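stage 2 :: seqdesign
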């Protein structure tokens, strides 16, 4: 699994591989519950675009729901080549807590030498919602090899693909060229394959939608990566049907994807796009310029704001919050870093323009320059798992293949490869060959476990959860079930969060995360109310921090405030830092205790640095106490040395969507 899991499953390099094969892309494209209700409620009609969803349930009664908006199954061209056989239907059942039977060969060809046949897999805790986001490019094409009666399975290249499925795309691409070495040209039947597969994708989502219990979304991933620079977006529909996906083979430009989304909305179906893996975009994701290298205009900013209200901040291929180069005073910035291009791992990804915190700051600058903020993002988390098993278990493994640690945790040489004790040879890097670059050795330790999206919604239905996504009342975690919410206002009563019914007052006298502060009135500074609750089965909380950016001339500045600290700790007035919470992890057993930290943290904080003339943005970060990293747990279970290349313990975390302040025009 190491070769597939780390370098291929995390790579999604289909467009780049096509270029490496000497082809153009256009030639190739033709309160969770685990159980289904016996009698499911009838789904309500989807909320149309431009209409604000109104629930019969008051806002004060919104609750936190957890889900994954980024998952791949066998219908993704790359996932199939890695051995994945999980269907979308099975993926939905697994996500809601059912046991599914998985072919051992699709879990890890190299990591399960002792496993064969079918093995059971069950999620550690059920999700409330899921979107299967298979790649739109060549969707369903590879699955034709599974049908012995399909012409593609009978073609001259079928035997080559069976022998080395990792190289399927290159084999197919070269065969399309009809070179002498690869025999006659092959018809992929791509248009019919996509049409049929898209129909099955929608059916699986609808068959597994159980209003009030488990929500599914019709969705896909648009996989643009010009020159290996990641511009991927997950496209999420609020409907039980949607037109055939727009793909990056039709255009690599996000602006053209937005045109497709706008056309879909004009047809009565609401849809949004969610960028992800900005850390691997080489600075393009949150650039100062558009796709044509022109400075961002007001029209561009307005379109991006409308089409992309959210961005993914955490997944298995790194955290895209910030890094020390951007935030040198942030002691927690150097966390689960993925610092290179996905399909060209020998090429470092440029830092500027690749991280969410910088995007939020640049958005303030662009608002001043052009009159609109294109980076007014809420945040989500995802797994980007490529075998259909949406897992975030801290006792699992890092990377793009989900595992049930109770039934198939890597062991023996497999674990040694995951921990880089046995060094894998340099991978076959056709893209490096094409560009004259050195091949990259495998780095299996750099990836983490999957992230999770949290929403505050009235009920577990498509309309309610989708409305929460659109208004950005969302938060993201690195995989744990931390619950966090943030409100902002100008006239909150003192100690409001200690009062009964405080949430109702917080909504009535202010705004929830994802919103703009209302008019200031006579107040001197805004007040934020924050509350975080630990994962019911996880670690206690260390602290809540407020991260503030504000416009400063033609740039921006940032500052971090510790607003809630466990254990009675205080911030040092000289350094502005708080003492570390401590660390209870036993590196011999991999166990930790909740004798430090707190199960709940609450804060009511008024900005001491507020300037009413300067636009500002605030978001919160919640830190758990230290726990073992997946690599530490895997080493201990297998009686192997704990890797020194990565931290032995980490502090899992959560982020809220921001709250913005914009001064009124004229002062």
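stage 2 :: out
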């Amino acid at each position: 699994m190491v070769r597939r899991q780390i370098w291929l499953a995390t790579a999604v390099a289909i467009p780049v591989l096509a270029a490496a094969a000497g082809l153009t892309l256009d030639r190739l494209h033709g309160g969770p519950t685990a159980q289904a209700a016996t009698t499911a409620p009838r789904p309500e009609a989807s909320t149309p675009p431009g209409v604000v969803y109104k629930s019969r349930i008051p806002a004060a009664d919104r609750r936190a729901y957890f889900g994954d908006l980024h998952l791949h199954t066998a219908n993704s061209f790359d996932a199939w080549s890695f051995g994945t056989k999980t269907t979308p239907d099975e993926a939905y059942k697994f996500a809601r807590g059912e046991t599914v039977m998985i072919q051992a060969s699709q879990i890890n060809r190299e990591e399960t030498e002792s496993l064969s046949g079918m093995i059971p897999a069950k999620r550690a805790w059920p999700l409330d919602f899921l979107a299967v986001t298979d790649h739109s490019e060549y969707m369903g094409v590879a699955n034709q090899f599974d049908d012995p009666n399909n012409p593609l399975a009978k073609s001259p290249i079928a035997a080559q693909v069976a022998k080395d499925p990792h190289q399927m795309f290159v084999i197919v691409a070269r065969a399309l060229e009809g070179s002498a070495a690869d025999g006659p040209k092959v018809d992929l039947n791509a248009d019919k394959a996509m049409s049929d597969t898209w129909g099955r994708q929608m059916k699986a989502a609808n068959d597994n939608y159980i209003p009030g219990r488990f929500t599914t979304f019709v969705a896909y991933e648009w996989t643009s990566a010009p020159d290996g620079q990641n511009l991927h977006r997950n496209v999420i529909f609020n409907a039980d049907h949607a037109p055939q996906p727009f793909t990056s083979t039709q255009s690599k430009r996000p602006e053209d994807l937005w045109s497709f989304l706008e056309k879909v909305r004009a047809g009565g179906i609401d849809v949004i796009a969610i960028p992800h893996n900005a850390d691997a975009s080489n600075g393009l994701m949150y650039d100062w310029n558009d796709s044509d290298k022109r400075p961002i205009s007001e029209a561009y900013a307005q379109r991006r704001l409308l089409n992309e209200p959210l961005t993914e901040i955490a997944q298995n291929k790194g955290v895209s919050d910030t890094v020390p180069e951007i935030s040198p005073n942030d002691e927690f910035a150097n966390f689960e870093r993925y610092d290179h291009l996905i399909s060209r791992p020998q090429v470092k990804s440029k830092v500027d323009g690749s991280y969410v915190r910088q995007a939020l700051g640049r958005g303030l600058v662009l608002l001043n320059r052009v009159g609109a903020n294109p980076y007014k993002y809420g945040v989500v988390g995802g797994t980007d798992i490529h075998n259909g098993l949406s897992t975030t278990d801290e006792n699992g493994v890092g990377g793009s293949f989900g595992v049930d640690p109770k039934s198939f945790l890597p062991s023996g040489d497999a674990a040694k490869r995951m921990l880089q004790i046995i060094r894998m040879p340099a991978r076959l890097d056709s893209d490096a060959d094409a560009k004259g670059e050195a091949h990259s050795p495998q780095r299996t330790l750099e990836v983490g476990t999957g992230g999770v999206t949290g929403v505050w919604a009235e009920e577990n239905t498509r309309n309610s959860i989708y409305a929460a996504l659109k208004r950005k009342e969302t938060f993201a975690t690195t995989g744990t079930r931390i619950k966090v919410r943030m409100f902002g206002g100008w006239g909150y009563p003192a100690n409001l969060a200690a009062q009964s019914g405080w949430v109702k007052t917080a909504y009535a006298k202010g705004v929830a995360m994802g919103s703009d502060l209302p008019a200031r009135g006579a107040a001197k500074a805004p007040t934020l109310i924050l509350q975080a609750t630990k994962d019911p089965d996880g670690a206690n909380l260390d602290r809540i921090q407020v991260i503030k950016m504000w416009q400063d001339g033609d740039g921006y500045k940032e500052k971090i405030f510790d607003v809630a600290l466990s254990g009675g700790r205080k911030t040092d007035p000289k350094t502005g830092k708080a003492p570390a919470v401590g660390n209870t992890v036993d590196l011999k057993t991999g166990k930790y205790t909740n004798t430090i930290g707190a199960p709940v943290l609450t804060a009511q904080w008024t900005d001491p640095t507020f300037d009413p003339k300067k636009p500002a943005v605030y978001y919160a970060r919640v830190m758990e106490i230290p726990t073992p990293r997946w690599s530490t747990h895997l080493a201990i279970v297998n009686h192997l040395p704990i890797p020194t290349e990565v931290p032995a313990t980490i502090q899992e975390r959560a982020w809220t969507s921001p709250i913005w302040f914009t001064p009124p025009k004229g002062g």
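stage 3 :: structure notes
- Confidence is low (pLDDT under 50) at residues 1-39, 108-114, 426-434.
- The first helix runs from residue 2 to 8.
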